[in-house]
Structures are given as structure tokens and as C-alpha cells.
Amino acid sequence: MLFDTDDLAPEDRVEAVHTVFQEASAPCHLIHEHPDRPVRFRVELRQLGDVEIFGSRSSGMSLLRTERQTRQDHVPVVAVSVQRRGVGRLEQWGERQLVPAGEMHLVDLSSAYEFGWSGEGAAGCVQVPLDVLDVPVDTIRRAAGSLRGSPLYRLVADHVAHLGRNARELTASAGARPLGAATLDLVRALLVSAAHDDLDAVEDTRLTQVRTYVRRHLTDPDLGPEKIAAALNVSVRLLYHLCRRAGFSLEQWIIAERLEGARADLALDATPITAVARRWGFTDPTHFTRRFRAAFGCSPSEWRRSRRPPGS
């Protein structure tokens, strides 16, 4: 998307800019520093894999996003931005900061904020949806005020600035998607390091939550990656990453846990084997018998007989 007020008559520019920001993915109000003077605004938005490159250049202005507007969001987004011209002024979560040219800041677009500059200014940023960033909100908030404390600060700032300067060429290249993935990894690493989080500890905690949730819902016939991820407020992508890191397949582990539950139930009472299978998520009796034999070396009926007291 490209929008440039130079293509419009001066009397049409204020209303056009207002419309653009009201209809943006994260709507906000635009307040012009000098509404009685000619307004200039250029906005460019390009897709790079799972992230977007957003660039703007304008006369003095402020972007104001209200609490009411944040409640309209469907996909929360974080923006990591480098000031290219002028001095940016950001206020969010009760904190204020000045951002000189060449420096970087972070804005959670799903929360209320105000950002702008006086006179001619410009900034470029990458916008990352939270559902692919997979970083806890409290980590983002801790990182926002201490980005400069990260050893990755200058690396990421230079990277974001380079993306902004070369957005058209980079997004049209064959390497756009892997470059987007690399950018996502850099932003994630920046936030974790700036917040001084132990990423391994965070992932271990999440993996424990996954295991606990699955074991409590093994008899739910709809249990699957999408439902687990939604319940734990993580993405399916992160869910699979956690399982790979721990060295197991999520689907195969669920099946193994269900087979263990079914085996225990078969030893308890005379409930029909097909009913026990259905209780544990196996709708096909033949499939259940095959998986049971592969796991335990005998059929469900053989297992049940082996658990009966002698002479019964």
C-alpha cells in the first residue's frame, strides 16, 4: 500500500490522511501540528513474510490511539521502529521517551499510545502480529523501556533501518519469506534479551502448561493442536516448537497418553472395549486395537483377560 498526499489537492489532504489512519489495521487519530498549513504525508506498507514493513514521512503530527480503539483489534501487533528524521515523542503505559534520529523504540499497537514529531519527520518500522511473535505481553512491556540495554539493539536497529530503505526491492525478491522469518527471530531475540528473560525457563514453563492441559483433556474428542494453542494463548507454531524442543511429536504423545488411559480403564471394569475406546478418543475400534497392540504387545481383550484374578 502506498499513500502520498503529493498526489492530492491541498484542500483534500487532511481528510484523506484522516481516513487512511482510521481504516488502518490498528486505527488511530491523527493530529496535525499545524492544520492551517499545507499537510504532507507519505505512507508505505509492504509485506515481508509474516511481518510488514511500514514507513512514513510527514509534516509535524501526532498519532493518538485510544483505549476504545484498542478494543476493536482482531490481531494485536507490535511495531519496532527506527526514527529516520526528526525526534520522535512516544508515550505509552505511562512512560514517555524521546527518540532521536537513528534510534529505535517499540510500540504495542494493541494498547493505547501517542507518538509523533514536530516539523518534518520520518520513521520506518517492522510490524509483527503477536500470534507469530510468541513473546508474552509482560515480556514486551519490560523490554519496551530498556531496548538500548540489549546487546542486539544496534544490530536490530540497523536491520530495521535497512528494511525501511529498501522495502520495495526486498519484498519483491525471492528471499522475501526467509528474510521475514529472520526478521521475526531478530525481533523476538531483542525483546527477550531487553527484558532479561530466560527464554529456556519461559519455554519450560509453557511446555509444562501444555502437558498439564493435555492430560486434563485427554477424553475430549476435539482435543488437538488448535484447541490446545487457543486454550494456552499461544500460536500453533509455538506449540509445535515447544514439542520439537522437548523431543516428541504432539499428536503421537496424545495418542500414547490416551492408550495409557484406556489400558487402565480396561483393567477396572467390564465396560465394552469399544466404549472404552470411544471414551479415550478412538472412534475406530480396528484402529484402536492396532494401536493398542503396537504399544503394549497384546490386544485390548487379551490385556483385559490378563488382569482378571485367577479362576474368575
Describe the overall structure.
There is one protein chain. The protein is an alpha+beta fold and 312 residues long. Helix content is 46%, strand content 21%. The chain has helices spanning 13-22, 67-70, 130-133, 137-144, 153-165, 167-171, 176-194, 199-216, 225-232, 236-246, 250-266, 273-279, 285-296, 300-306; strands at 2-4, 29-32, 41-48, 51-58, 61-65, 77-85, 88-92, 95-99, 104-108, 113-117, 121-129. A six-stranded antiparallel beta sheet has the order 1-3-4-11-6-9. A five-stranded antiparallel beta sheet has the order 2-5-10-7-8. The chain is elongated. The protein starts with a strand and ends in a 6-residue tail after the last helix. 28% of the residues are buried. The model has no long low-confidence stretch (mean pLDDT 89).
Descriptive keywords:
elongated, 14 helices, 46% helix, 6-stranded antiparallel β-sheet, single chain, alpha+beta, 5-stranded antiparallel β-sheet, 312 residues, 11 strands
Mean pLDDT: 89
Largest sheet: 6 strands, antiparallel
The outline comes out as elongated
Number of helices: 14
Percent range for helical residues? 40-55%
* Class inferred from helices and paired strands: alpha+beta
Query: In what order do the strands lie side by side in the largest sheet?
Result: 1-3-4-11-6-9
Give the end-to-end Cα distance, rounded to a whole number of Å: 77 Å
Rg estimate, integer Å: 27 Å
Uncertain runs are: none
Helices and strands, in N-to-C order? Answer: EHEEEEHEEEEEEHHHHHHHHHHHH
Strand segment tally: 11
What percentage of the residues does DSSP assign to strands (E)?
Answer: 15-25%
